[in-house]
Amino acid sequence: MNQSLALIPATIDLSRTRSKALALLAGAAFVALLARVTLPLPFTPVPLTLQTLGVLLVGAALGSRLGAQALLLYLAAGAAGLPVFAGGGAGAAWFAGPTGGFLLGFVPAAWTAGALVERFDSGRRPLPAFLAMLAAGAVIYAFGLAGLAGWMLLAGEAAGPGKLLVLGLLPFVPGDLLKAAAAALLLPGAWRMAGASGRL
C-alpha cells in the first residue's frame, strides 16, 4: 500500500480510482468553502481567511500525494474561472497578484503536512500534529512572501523586509497558530469522516 495512504482509515479504499477522485474533489471543495470566510485588512492586500486551515487539514488527512493533488485541482479550478479563491475570486490573474505566492504555496504545504504526518505518525498525537501543521504553514509563508515581494517590485513599491513582514506575515501569525492547532485537533475526526462516507 502506498505510504501516503497508510494512515487513512482502513474502511475506505483510496486505491480505487473512484474513491481517489471523490477524495480529491472533496478536498478541493473543502478548501474552496473555507476560502469564502475572508476578512480584508485595510493596510495590506492580503486578507485574513480560513483557506489555509483547509490546506493543512486536507494535506494531513489525505496524505502527501493525494493532498497535493487535491490542492492542484483547487488551483486549476480557480484558474479556469470557478469562484473558489478568497472571497469568491477566480481567474489565472490571481497568480500574478499579491496573494499569488500564497496560492502557489498551497500545493507544497499540503504535501508537507501529509509527509510529516506519514513519516512520524503524528496525526494521532496532538502536539506532533500541531508541529507538522506549523511546518506546512511556514511553507505557505515562504512562497507567499516571495510572491508578495515580487508583486510589490513590479508595482514599483519598496519591498523592504520590514514592510514585507507587516504586509504578509505578522498580522497573520496569531490566527495561523490557532488554525494549526485546529487542524491538528480535527485531523482524527477527518479520518473518521473519510472512513464513514468514502471521502474527506
Task: Characterize the structure shown.
The protein has seven helices and two strands; from the N terminus they run H-E-E-H-H-H-H-H-H. It is globular. The chain has a single domain (13-188), classed as Arp2/3 complex 21 kDa subunit ARPC3 (Orthogonal Bundle), CATH 1.10.1760. Strands 1-2 form a two-stranded antiparallel sheet. The protein is mainly alpha-helical and 200 residues long.
The assigned structural class equals mainly alpha
Could you name the CATH topology? Arp2/3 complex 21 kDa subunit ARPC3
Round the Cα radius of gyration to an integer and report it: 16 Å
Strand order of the largest sheet: 1-2
Main β sheet profile = 2 strands, antiparallel
Number of strands: 2
The sequence of SSEs as H and E is HEEHHHHHH
Q: How far apart are the termini?
A: 19 Å
Q: What is the tally of helical segments? A: 7
Which CATH-level-2 architecture? Orthogonal Bundle
Arithmetic mean pLDDT: 88
Q: Report the sheet-strand fraction.
A: under 5%
Unreliable sequence segments: 1-12, 196-200
